[in-house]
Write a structure and sequence with these properties.
The chain has about 130 residues and is mostly helical. The chain is built from 5 helices and no strands. Helix 1 runs parallel beside helix 5 and helix 2 packs antiparallel against helix 3. It starts with a helix and ends with a helix.
């Protein structure tokens, strides 16, 4: 009984994350990483860090994801070159890959987490192109 209740809570949390990140990918509101397209260098890193902080604040039901995004944002803010910025994003992607694997193994919906990984991939492409 308790396990079923926890499973329902986990599914609801994953659905909420999927909705939040679906809106992020669609480019609605100030959370869109595409708002950083016109920037380069340090300005780009700061813009992406702000977006990751925004996403982290909305993912409070997934503490590991939230922590990884906050850490990436912090590292982006102190990055002084493309290599450091890419490393910050890669570390967050690695953590999310582990979270996705655990969700997949538990039979949980992980589509919202895949979207977050997509956002991080987009951030990495921006850094590679304009960093």
């Amino acid at each position: 009984m308790l396990l079923q209740c926890l499973a329902r809570y986990a599914r609801a949390a994953m659905l909420a994350i999927a909705v939040v990140f679906g809106a992020l990918l669609a480019g609605h509101g100030s959370a869109s990483a595409s708002a950083c397209n016109a920037m380069a260098g340090k300005e780009l890193y700061n813009c992406l860090a702000n977006k990751l902080d925004h996403v982290a604040a909305m993912s409070s039901r997934s503490p590991e994801t939230q922590s990884a995004l906050q850490k990436a944002a912090s590292q982006l803010r102190v990055s002084v070159n493309k290599s450091q910025a890419l490393s910050a994003v890669s570390q967050a992607r690695s953590v999310l890959a582990g979270v996705i694997q655990r969700a997949k193994s538990a039979g949980q919906d992980y589509s919202g987490l895949v979207r977050v990984t997509g956002v991080l991939s987009y951030a990495a492409r921006l850094i590679q192109q304009k960093g």
